[in-house]
Structure formats: C-alpha cells, structure tokens
Amino acid sequence: MIKFLSPHRDGVRCRGGKRQEAKGGKKGIGNREQGTLLLFLCDSVVTLLPTAYCLLPAAYCLSYLLPLPIQLFLMNWRVLGASVCGTSHQKRSQPCQDAWATRIRDDGLLLAAVADGAGSATRSQDGAEWAVQAAIAYLANVALLPLTKSSNCDKEDPEQEDGSDEPDLTQLLQQALEAARTCVIEQAEAAGLPPRECASTLILLVASHEGVAVAQIGDGAAVMIDETGTLTALSQPQQGEYANQTTFLTSEGAIAQAEISIYPIAPQGIALFSDGLQRLALEMPQGTPHERFFSPLFQFIQQDSDEAGANEQLQGFLTSPRVSQRTDDDLTLVLAGAIAPSPSDP
C-alpha cells in the first residue's frame, strides 16, 4: 500500500490510489534560524567569483555557481543508534533479537533500517541482522530519484508503466524489501532452517535535504521533525488480526502488504524504533508522536558531542528505569540529525 503526504500540511494523502484528507503534524521543538548556512557559504566563495557575480543573490550563487561536489555537502548527518536486550529476554536468557544498520551514501543520502526479530523464532536475531544489512546494501549503489521528483509521488498505481525504463523510488524500496526477504530465506535454507525461524519485521528509510521515504513491514515506526518543529509519524505499526500479532518479512505476501510513504518535506531530525518503544513514543491507536518523548531526543542528536559518548548515553537512556519499567521488550532506537557542514568539511 502506498501513502503520500504533500508538502502542504492540509493537503491530501494517497493510500492505494484513493484520496483522503491528510492529518497535520504535532508541534515539537522551536524553529531554527534559517539562512545562516547560505550566508556563510556565499561569504566563503564570493571572493573567488568575478565582481559581476557578487551582485547576484546568495541562493542564485549557490545553486548555479558552486560546483556540484560542494552542493552535495550542504547537508551532513549525525547518526546514532543502539539496541538493548529487554528485561523479559534477560530473564529467559534470550539474546537481543533486534538489529539496525545505517549508511550515508557518497551523494549525501541517508539510509537506515531497523528490524525486530520474532520472539517465537529460534534464529530471529540472525534474520533481523540479515534483513537490515541486505536492504541497506541494495540501496547503497542504486540510482535514486530526488525525493521531490513527481514520478515518485504522483502515480496512483505504483505498478503502472509510465514509459520510463528507470524505476521510481517506490519500486526501488519494494525491490530493497524483496532483496532483504530473499537474503533471509536463502540464509535460513543454507542453515537447514525453515524461514519462519528467522522471521523479523523491517523498517527501511531513505532521507535527503529534500524529503524522506519509508518502507515498512510489521510493527515499530519512524518519526520526523521538520524545520518548523512539527513532528510527523512517517509510518505506522502494522497490526495483525489479533493483539500482539504483526506481519513479518518472511510471511507470505509480506511485500504486497508493505507500507511505503514519501514525504517531500525537509527533515531536521529522524527517529526509527522497534515496537518495544511504541507505547512510550506514540499515542495509540492513532500513532501520534509524543512531543515529550521526541523533543529531548531531537535536541540531543543536534548536539556536537563525541560519537562514542553519545551512543553510550543513548544506550543508557534505553536501559534507564524510566524506560525499562514501562516495557520489557527488546529496544532499538536510531536517531539522525541534519546538520550544517563545518568549515573543515570537504
């Protein structure tokens, strides 16, 4: 099923080709100052430009006069992530069955994935790891259209041919899910196991300074904060017919049931998390992000701190009593913050 949210908060969301009113986001942390980066970069290069170019607006200078490699570094990413074993798993001497992976491509695109292994599956921790690694590897080298490209968002039917030989982002995300599923099944068969023993969920995200795209099978969710401080649930947990039931990557028809959403809205911060954090992070059943949960996290990811120390703090937060006393499941949280490049960056 395909969902699309227009850049206008009161626009329409397309789900399975049907139009319905989009719900607005929720206000989070305050606005950030804008234009500082443009002025800094323009001041840095203006002395290298002919006098005539100095009279052009800063945006024009940056868009047309700077070489492409410099434009690609107008946004960097600070990424943190941690997985911790739930208290219920610790009592049963079970391993953490969650996994996560991230990668920043040479073109500046952020790739992130989170998987939650099925508690009843004997090798689900391996299945989760295989799933995130295979999905990220697939998207690492393929050509991706800009997240504002209309062909990514305007199709009512994602399988409809548009005369182009180049797959759109929706199709590429579906292919990445399929690559992850194939990898898990092949690894399970090589180990002499039925695929269900390596079952896991999977959330896959692609982000740039232009927008965010998310593909999801199963529970867990992704949340974004934009430059206005608005919190948006990028995906919703998929629930089965019964309580605590969900779809897994290895389930029959899993790819067809995947939720794929494209948001052409500039992200300031992104969070992906497994279902262990759902009750703390989302107001269910609506799936609305809790401001009190996310605002400190998005402020934290914007801090210029040592990566190793920051990851330790994130892991400490997940194991703290304020979290562990409210959930006994495995917990995974990946945070990404969009940051301006420092003068020492390429």
What does the secondary structure layout of this molecule look like, with pairings?
Blueprint: E1 2-5, E2 12-15, E3 18-21, E4 26-27, H1 36-46, H2 51-54, H3 58-65, H4 68-71, E5 76-84, H5 87-91, E6 98-104, E7 110-116, H6 124-140, H7 150-153, H8 169-190, E8 202-207, E9 212-217, E10 221-226, E11 230-233, H9 254-257, E12 259-263, E13 267-273, H10 278-281, E14 282-283, E15 288-289, H11 291-301, H12 307-319, H13 321-324, E16 331-339
Helix pairs in contact: 1-3, 6-8
Describe the structure.
- By secondary structure, this protein is of the alpha+beta class.
- 32% of the residues lie in helices and 24% in strands.
- It has 13 helices and 16 strands.
- It has helices spanning 36-46, 51-54, 58-65, 68-71, 87-91, 124-140, 150-153, 169-190, 254-257, 278-281, 291-301, 307-319, 321-324; strands spanning 2-5, 12-15, 18-21, 26-27, 76-84, 98-104, 110-116, 202-207, 212-217, 221-226, 230-233, 259-263, 267-273, 282-283, 288-289, 331-339.
- It has an 8-stranded mixed sheet with strand order 3-2-1-12-9-8-7-6.
- Helix 6 (124-140) packs across helix 8.
- The radius of gyration is 21 Å and the shape is globular.
- The two termini are 40 Å apart.
- Mean pLDDT is 79; it is low at 1-74 and 154-162.
